[in-house]
Amino acid sequence: MFVKFNRRNKDGDLENIEYELSTTLRVGLAVQKRFAKPFLKVAQSIRNLGIEELIAFLSCGIEGSENDRKEFRDAILDGDLGLGGIYEAVAALVTGIQYPGLSEDEIEKKVQAQQEKIRSMGIETGSEQLSNEEPLSD
User: Which of the residues 12, 13, 20, 91 has an alpha carbon 20 to 30 A from that of 35?
Assistant: First the structure.
């Protein structure tokens, strides 16, 4: 997946920025390590994360050195991605890790089928569980 945005360079000119984020299970493990929580617990608590934590979540998908992740962080903070764009990128990263290689339509169909199966088993899902989520910081 790609995160795309613009930022001004040192000359004041607008430049297009594009970072590729990996969506392998290794990224899920990196998220778990970074937040010291299971991946899905972190993913379900995204709305409770601050800006630094959201960027840290995204930077887990950057393959390379710690310096590459710092460059990514600085580019986001200086660019025009905005908070809405950060949330969209985090959601896309979570989806990519959960359903690698599938298109948005394929993912939607798969999720609907899974939800139907769960409902048919009498298991409650959705907002009633999300409303009980705990913040990440203990």
Answer: 20
